[in-house]
């Protein structure tokens, strides 16, 4: 390996799953148990955190908790 090359080690599964967990929350459309539509807010590891009536409100809630929102398609 030359001096300017960097060797990368593969991440353990737990480390990979925790990437972004302190910086990002994901939003996507969901159906609530009563059949209503909402916007779900999920942690980076996929755990449900909250629901909001609109994407704008979901993003505001996420930013209030010092996270960055990311849309899931």
Walk me through what this model shows.
The protein has a four-stranded mixed beta sheet, covered by helices on one side. Strand 1 and strand 2 form a beta hairpin. It is of the alpha+beta class. The longest helix is centred in the C-terminal third of the chain and has 10 residues. The protein has a domain of 43 residues. The chain is 22% helix and 33% strand. The mean pLDDT is 86.
Q: How are the SSEs ordered, and which strands pair?
A:
Blueprint: H1 13-18, E1 24-31, E2 37-43, E3 48-52, H2 55-64, E4 68-71
Parallel strand pairs: 1-4
Antiparallel strand pairs: 1-2, 2-3
Strand order of the largest sheet: 3-2-1-4
Question: Pairing-aware structural class of the strands and helices?
Answer: alpha+beta
The strand count comes to 4
Overall pLDDT metric: 86
Unreliable sequence segments = none
Which percent bin holds the helix content?
A: 10-25%
Shape: elongated
Largest sheet: 4 strands, mixed
Span between termini: 40 Å
Order of helices and strands: HEEEHE
Strand content: 25-35%
Number of helices: 2
Radius of gyration: 17 Å
What is the gist of this entry?
By secondary structure, the protein is an alpha+beta fold.
Please supply descriptive tags for the structure shown above.
73 residues; alpha+beta; elongated; four-stranded mixed sheet; single chain
């Amino acid at each position: 390996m030359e001096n300017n090359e960097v060797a990368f080690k593969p991440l353990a599964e737990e480390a990979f799953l925790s990437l972004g967990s302190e910086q990002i929350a994901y939003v996507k459309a969901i159906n609530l148990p009563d059949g209503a539509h909402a916007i779900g807010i999920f942690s980076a590891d996929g755990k449900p955190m909250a629901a909001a009536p609109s994407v704008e409100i979901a993003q505001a809630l996420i930013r209030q908790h010092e996270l960055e929102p990311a849309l899931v398609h």
